[in-house]
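User: Hi! I'm working on a homework problem where we have to compare a predicted structure to a textbook description. Could you give me the structure for the chain below?
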Amino acid sequence: MAGFTRQLTNQHTSQLPGQVPAKRLRVVRWRDLRLWVGLAIMVLAMFAGAFILSRGEQTTTVWRASTDLSIGSVPVATPVTVALGEAQDQYLPANEPLTGRLRWPVAAGDLIPRGALGYSSLLNARMVTLPVDPLHAPVNLATGDIVDIWSTPAEVAGGITAKPVLVFSRVTVAEAAIDSVGIGGEIAVVVEVPADGAAQLVAAARSGLIDLVAVPITSQPTS
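Assistant: Happy to help. Predicted structure tokens:
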């Protein structure tokens, strides 16, 4: 009888072919500190991601340069709506007027930074008017352009070809009357120079031919 009982017990306890042994499930303890910390980190990550996405999708309207703007020039710009994220405070919003002149060059199509405006003239400057042949000046010369001033003597003894001399470098054009041509076919260009250099520039203009050479915006200082 005892042998028969052991045989039945072995039949019930033995596994059938392919049968997976049962495992005891562990009850999750909600009071586990690690679980709460993990949940807190996950929630914080979700909120942080949502905040970053919302900041990136926010748009603002700022000023964009319509043309290349040189140092000292009056800003010519149009409003444009862009998504700048955290960098939006670095640029001039379109609801603020553009007052002052450029402190550093801004290329056409670039956004105008807040610190770009506020150019002030030389503390001891003089405005000198130069008679310039239109063919010896940059095309579309305008207020605020930066130019080098060269002078070529009108006559040199012995028939030697005169060499141009650099009179001033990186001078700001205060005004250019490109639409008004004088009797000699020249235009009047007013430039801003230091007071102690005005006499030198006047002498160069009276004794020779003046050439204005444009300084590209890429060659101008940025601060």
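For your comparison, note the following. Residues 125-219 form one domain. The radius of gyration is 39 Å. Good luck with the assignment!
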